[in-house]
Design goal:
alpha/beta; Rossmann fold; Dehydroquinate synthase-like, alpha domain; 6-stranded parallel β-sheet; two-stranded antiparallel sheet; 10 strands; 53% helix
């Protein structure tokens, strides 16, 4: 007999312009009267000030504010250890590093975490993992799904275009990730959660209806990335969101290639991997044309030799994580695609 599962999903979800100014109202409705704010360094001062004003207006006490300086396990633990007595919720504000650290500190303290993203560069603002560095290596550490997501679409629209494009690249990866997941099922019997896979695919198609950088496009991208984070929570795995394209990106990071936005690397790797899988290539390439993704990468191209080395190393990073890279020697195909594909030729240099 199959036993029904319990799945954690965010209780508080607001996706609209001006949401950040109502944060105090939302927090008060859920009984949070004493909170801590963990925020990204270098945010426009108006954002933290709007959060403080929103909390103060509703009589919610801000016990402490900390700037997150690194996405390290050590910093998350230190912030957890220094949470003031009586803290009822942890609010994370800004980019991925601050949100990952705030999420993990809240997880260690067993406190509700409210995610307030300042941009949409990846799906980490609503996922049950925290991406932190531990002993010099980036790892996805188990955490919990945010209690709340307060996504101000006007704030995210004002973020740099490169962060929007990074989110587009990370979202497109769901196509290749789900395909790799199904390959793993047929090759090794890796269980596939049908609903999580369906939700992951559907999240991308939702955005494809309006892949434009305006308030509606931000709403669709933010909702799609959020649903993909929930898909990971449903199946208890990163499989709905991460496949061979993420392995290539991680291999680039570990090789010490010039740091680039995660979603930009993943997006190019997604298009490359879609060729190897024989699925979704035209759809992904068209999305990248429409959004200006290719144009942005062409202005700051990748190095072909670094990507060949990353493709060689990628399947060894997680030997038990079956993907298309595990099925055959893909290096000759990768080398040919990087040199001959009309899209990839534009975004690589020797």
């Amino acid at each position: 007999m199959t036993i029904p599962r319990q799945v954690a999903i965010p209780t508080l979800v607001r996706v609209k312009p001006g949401a950040i100014d109502r944060l105090g109202i939302y927090a008060g409705r859920h009984g949070f009267r004493r909170v801590v704010l963990l925020q990204s360094e270098g945010l426009p001062e108006t954002l933290p000030q709007r959060v403080r004003n929103a909390l103060e207006t509703e009589g919610i006490e801000l016990l402490a504010t900390h700037n997150v300086t690194s996405a390290s396990f050590e910093e998350a633990v230190s912030l957890f250890q220094n949470l003031p007595a009586g803290t009822e919720a942890v609010i994370g504000l800004g980019g991925g590093k601050a949100l990952d650290v705030a999420k993990y500190a809240g997880f260690l303290a067993r406190l509700p975490f409210v995610s307030v993203p300042g941009s949409l560069s990846n799906d980490g603002f609503c996922s049950p993992q925290s991406s932190l560095t531990l002993n010099g290596r980036r790892r996805s550490l188990p955490a919990v799904m945010p209690f709340g997501v307060v996504l101000d679409t006007a704030v995210c629209l004002a973020a740099p275009e490169s962060l929007w494009l990074s989110g587009v690249g990370d979202l497109a990866a769901k196509f290749t990730a789900v395909t790799d997941w199904k390959l793993a099922f047929h090759a090794r019997g890796t269980p596939v959660d049908d609903f999580a896979a369906l939700l992951s695919d559907a999240s991308v198609f939702q955005f494809l209806a309006h892949p434009v950088r305006d308030l509606e496009g931000i709403r669709l991208l933010g909702t799609a990335l959020m649903l993909n984070g929930i898909a990971m929570g449903i199946c208890g795995s990163s499989r709905p969101a991460s496949g061979s394209e993420h392995l290539i990106s991680h291999a680039l990071d570990e090789a010490g290639a010039r740091p680039r936005l995660h979603g930009l690397q993943v997006g190019v790797a997604t298009y490359l991997v879609s060729h190897l899988q024989g699925r979704h290539t035209e759809l992904i390439g068209g999305l990248f044309d429409t959004t200006g993704f290719w144009r942005a990468i062409e202005a700051d191209p990748f190095v072909r030799s670094e990507w060949l080395a990353a493709a060689r190393r990628a399947p060894r990073l997680k030997p038990d994580f079956h993907t298309v890279l595990s099925e055959r020697d893909c290096l000759p195909e990768v080398a040919r695609l990087l040199s001959e594909d009309s899209q990839l030729r534009r975004v690589f240099i020797d």
